[in-house]
Amino acid sequence: MDNNKDKEKIMEIVNKEKYKEAKTVRKIVFITTAIIFLLLAGILTGGYLYIHSALKPVDPDSKQEVQVEIPMGSGTSAIASILEKNRVIKDALVFKYYVKFKNETDFQAGTYLLSPSMTMNEIITSLKTGSVYKKAALSIPVPEGLRLTEIAGIIAKKTDYSTEEIVNTVNSPEFIKKAMETYPELITEDVLNENIKFPLEGYLFPATYSFEEKKPPLEEILLAMIKKTNDVVEKYRIDLESKGITVHQLLTLASLVEEEATNEADRKTIASVFYNRMETGMPLQTDPTVIYAIGEHRDRLTFKDYYEVVDPYNTYLNSGYPPGPIAGSSEMSIEAALYPASSDYYYFLATPKGEVLFSKTLEEHNEKYAQYIQSNQSNK
């Protein structure tokens, strides 16, 4: 009998413990569920508020205008990144999905003046119609492959500044110092090499520049061109560092590619020829550097030009990189200089028809020269 009572008491104790445990578990489950619910609610609310904020103008009261260039072939993701980088929108991802939600397409390449006060719909309308938010009072188109003095001539034609004044300003120690302080990762001590003819040669990016003022300060024009170079180079910063190439070397080699290439397909192979020659200690032997050393255009160079023009830029007499860029490079040439093709070519020549022929040996190169260049000259 006592055994039964003991069992009942034990069972009663066990049941009470189970009840307590169940109650504790229910409490834990309830608290956990509540926390998860609150977290989800917080995340959803935070997400909603963030997206709601990101859809609004960056600064509704801003009177600032930002020059934004949308390159040819840019997709929505690229455009969104460009807009975010220029602080015209708050979030590239939100812009991308907003455009997708609205089923907006047919954005046009071009240079735009956009404002942080614009709504997303206003930005989208501008990009679709190809019209700037506010018409530029001054537009300066700078083609690829021009020397600094030629760029100065273009600026002079579009403004009241003389070519001499522009060249003197961009070469002045005061302006160079200002440019170095403004873009320290782009413009380094490399531009101060005593052998460089123009310190900022190759740092004025070829593009179309728009200005709200009809007569903007000269330094504003020049700094806009340097900023564009900085924006382009910055995209390749990680790869530059991993490959151990300086910005100055990149722009220098890119300018050689720009001057030698006739189309996009040849640029990376031309770059590979330059790298192959430097790796084996061969001089680059590229004609544009000799023309740059001479200081005036030549349709044809002579043996005397190649080997009697004693100048640091003459890559027939000097191995390795020339002291600096010899012209402004397109982004295609910059990419080619950074990502050259893999080849075993050491020579190339351009035919009168604009075709670039590559060779592995000097003998092969001379045969092509005799066939395509000398024969063409003798037929004239």
From TrEMBL:
Keywords: Cell membrane, Cell wall biogenesis/degradation, Lyase, Membrane, Transmembrane, Transmembrane helix. Gene3D superfamilies: Classic Zinc Finger, Endolytic murein transglycosylase. GO terms for biological process: cell wall organization; peptidoglycan biosynthetic process. It is an enzyme of class 4 (lyase). It comes from the Bacteria. Coiled coil: none annotated. One of its GO terms (cellular component) is plasma membrane. It catalyses: a peptidoglycan chain = a peptidoglycan chain with N-acetyl-1,6-anhydromuramyl-[peptide] at the reducing end + a peptidoglycan chain with N-acetylglucosamine at the non-reducing end. Its EC number is 4.2.2.29. The chain crosses the membrane at residues 28-51. Its main location: membrane. The record marks E260 as: Important for catalytic activity. The keyword Magnesium does not apply. It is found in: Cell membrane. It is a single-pass membrane protein. One of its GO terms (molecular function) is lytic endotransglycosylase activity. Functions as a peptidoglycan terminase that cleaves nascent peptidoglycan strands endolytically to terminate their elongation. Belongs to the transglycosylase MltG family. This is Endolytic murein transglycosylase. The lineage of its organism: Bacteria, Bacillati, Bacillota, Bacilli, Bacillales.
